[in-house]
Amino acid sequence: MGRTEVKSTRDAEPSLLKVLGNWDVLALGFGAMIGFGWVVLTGDWITSAGTMGAVLAMVTGGLIMAVVGLTYAELVAAMPKAGGEHNYLLRGMGPRWSFIGSWGITGGYITIVAFEAVALPRTATYLFPNLNAVPLWEIAGDHVHLTWALVGAVAAVVITAVNILGVRHAGVAQTFVVLLLIIVGLMLVFGSFTGGSTANMEPFFTGGMGGFFAVLVVVPFMFVGFDVIPQSAEETHIPARQIGRLVVIAVALATVWYVGTILTTSSAMNAQELAGTDIATADAMGKLFGSDIMAKILIAGGIAGILTSWNSLLLGASRLMYSMARAGMLPAWFGKLHPKYRTPVNALLFIGALSVLAPFFGQNMLGWLVDSGSPSIVIAYALVSLVFVLLRRREPKMDRPLRIGGKGNGGQLIGIAAVVLCLGLLSLYLPGMPAALGAVPWLLFGLWWTLGLFFLLRIPGGIAPGEHAEEDLLERLAARRRR
User: Fold this and answer.
1) Reduced to 3 states, what is the DSSP secondary structure of residue 136?
2) N or C: which end of the chain has fewer CB within 10 A?
3) Which pTM was predicted?
């Protein structure tokens, strides 16, 4: 089978539906980033680095992600296809590097989907203190209860089903929940202006550089999601240039959200009070308005964040697995589209099954998932930033509807800066660094990449990067099967 035959076979296959508009795409990207972390982690950020130290770390992280986001913006405008990183790395670095980048970001997405499946019952306990019933087992000192775990497991089934029914349904659900999230955020800001105090924000800085880095290392996990926009690019009906712009807008909005959460929470409670809270942001909301009901409304916003992030990243991970399967990098089973809804049904079922299982490992899984997924995310970002630079040099005349940095060398400088910043961020996870990861996160990280190595070694070497790299890969795989 030659390249032309491979291409015509691929063109004849069922394709994803183009149903997403501007707001749908922005809601997917922004909603993916604003999960549950802002509810449970804000107190830790403030106690680790102080109010302004946490703000500085989050702004720094936002700027790093914005620089990386600029490289994504140009690439998604040039190659608006499902799979995002998969396509960019195929074009600029070849199949094996494409797999490494795609596997990294898929691993990051799956850890967050699993995180949200654990975070939901964790949040529900705040609203329903008697939720824990029918004890099952103990993991790392945490007692897991059947009723608690079933909250996350049942939600996983529902969200997976919504995604199988079609991206349009998922987009409508995302839009509704993002609006609810924004309303809760505005209420928190209003409460801070009327009932908060700048005196509570002191000390502004604490923990030194260790505290700063302790907040900075969670940035990849908190901001992952803007890259869901490239994953869904094949399902949009908006100009490619606009898709790229929405990537950058989503990162900016998320930065504003996290900074606002830090400032409003710290204005409500002093450092000593924050240290004694269960869920700091909810307790802060209750204190600002002098009402437990308002704390529960904030928790409703947290649940909205869980659902938006969960929905978006399930969509993104499934599209990546679909794209890798379509290119022969993963088993063809993952590349099957639902005959009616044209969604990657098997990829969705696989990720959905993992998220059903996650709550049965208990709430300590939250920290492990945050830590284990972050290095994989940064590896993918570093590779995308690198391929941005390589494509600028190798294919200067490639059609780029959105050209970052103008016609000169500004774009190259942005790409190099993104690579350097990602490598610097990656180094923070290593042993001996102020925010080094623990043993369990490294174990989960190692297991994911060991599985990836099995698939990587099945990909033929010697295939040149370029516009036809995927067709060349499929042709080589077909020839291998005939032998």
Assistant:
1) strand
2) C
3) 0.80
